[in-house]
Design goal:
By secondary structure, the protein is mainly beta. It has two helices and 13 strands, in the order E-E-E-E-E-E-E-E-E-E-E-E-E-H-H. It has an eight-stranded mixed β-sheet, with no helix packed on it. A three-stranded antiparallel β-sheet has the order 3-4-13, with no helix packed on it. Strands 6-11 form a two-stranded antiparallel ribbon.
C-alpha cells in the first residue's frame, strides 16, 4: 500500500528519477529504469504530432516510466468502463478507463500507453479489485511511439471514450486542473 492506503498502480523501486521536461524532451537522454513525469508541467517541444496543435504542452497526468511489460494495477475496487486503441502517432496507444469511488464520489482513471493485449484481459463492466492487474506497459511500437511508461490521469466527469486531453493549452489549464485533478491523490507523494 502507498501512503494514501491504496495499492500502487506501478510498483516502484526505492530509487527512481523525477523527470524534468520543462526544458524540452530528449527521448534518447540517459535515464534510470524507473521515473516519474510530473502533473501540470509545461513541456515545450515535447508534443509535436498533429493532435497537439503546437499549443497543447501542459501535462494533465502523471507518467511512470518503467520497463515494457511491467504490470499496471488497480489502485482500488472499481470497474473497467472504457477501452480503446488510440493508435495515432503521439497518442496513448492502448488505453483503459476505470471507474472508482474517491471520497464518496465517482472518479475516472485513464491508464494509457499499454500493450495491445491489455485491451483483451477483461470485459467492459467487469468489476476490478484493489491490486488486480489491469494490463501491462507497452513497447514504443504499440504505445503511441513513446519510451515505455504508463500515463495516469484522473477525471471528475465520466468520459465518453477511452481518451482524455493528456496535454492542454495555457488557455485551458485552469479548467483542466478542475476536471483532471492531481493523480497523487491516488499515488501518494511520489515526488
Amino acid at each position: 500500500m502507498n501512503d494514501n492506503g491504496f495499492h500502487p498502480i506501478i510498483r516502484l523501486p526505492e530509487h527512481y528519477e523525477v523527470f524534468d521536461f520543462t526544458g524540452g524532451y530528449d527521448p534518447d537522454r540517459p535515464r534510470m529504469e524507473y521515473g516519474i513525469g510530473r502533473y501540470d508541467e509545461v513541456r515545450p517541444g515535447m508534443y509535436t504530432t498533429a493532435q497537439f496543435e503546437n499549443v497543447r504542452n501542459i501535462h494533465m497526468g502523471i507518467d511512470i516510466g518503467c520497463p515494457a511489460g511491467t504490470p499496471v494495477h488497480a489502485f482500488d475496487d472499481g470497474a473497467l468502463i472504457l477501452q480503446r486503441d488510440n493508435d495515432q502517432p503521439g497518442d496513448y496507444g492502448p488505453t483503459l478507463v476505470c471507474e472508482h469511488q474517491l471520497d464518496g464520489k465517482p472518479i475516472y482513471v485513464l491508464l494509457g500507453h499499454l500493450t495491445r493485449a491489455s485491451l483483451h484481459l477483461r470485459e467492459l463492466g467487469t468489476p476490478i479489485r484493489r491490486g488486480d492487474v489491469l494490463g501491462h506497459v507497452g513497447e514504443k511500437h504499440e504505445n503511441g511511439g513513446w519510451n515505455p511508461h504508463v500515463h495516469i490521469q484522473l477525471a471528475t466527469d465520466r468520459p465518453n471514450t477511452a481518451d482524455m486531453p493528456g496535454a492542454v493549452s495555457k488557455e485551458d489549464r485552469a479548467g483542466a486542473r478542475r476536471q483532471h485533478p492531481d493523480p497523487r491523490r491516488l499515488l501518494g507523494p511520489i515526488y
